[in-house]
Amino acid sequence: MGMSTASLRRLLNGSWAVLFSHPDDFACYGFEFDRWVEEVREAFSAASVRPLALQSAIRGGYSWISDVGGALVGRPAAWLLGGASSRFVVMLDDLFWPRRTFRYEPGGQLPSPIEFAAAAGALRRINPGPNVHSSACRA
What we know:
By secondary structure, this protein is of the alpha/beta class. Helix content is 36%, strand content 19%.
């Protein structure tokens, strides 16, 4: 069952998000886990971006996403998915528009969640509000 757009809007409260299809692929990059979680939490907080993960991809019902202040969401709208086995990270703006999509294969070298938080924060600073989108839609 998917999360409604209204529920997701309330959850994000106007902030941008980074949605990880398979967050376990990004867990703990060489630090001890507690230190790593703190670094990731600080990166998302500094960027004013919320981490999200697809609940269906969580093994064992637990994910680092919850530890860093993020949320697990049900299956999102079909436009976010490239298929059931697709692995991706999507940076979503405050209107849920995908701003950047990173697709990957399991087992490859991946950027850290800290890098995704910084990239989403930089995109947010370039285009901070929904007014740009709404005026563009009326044109």
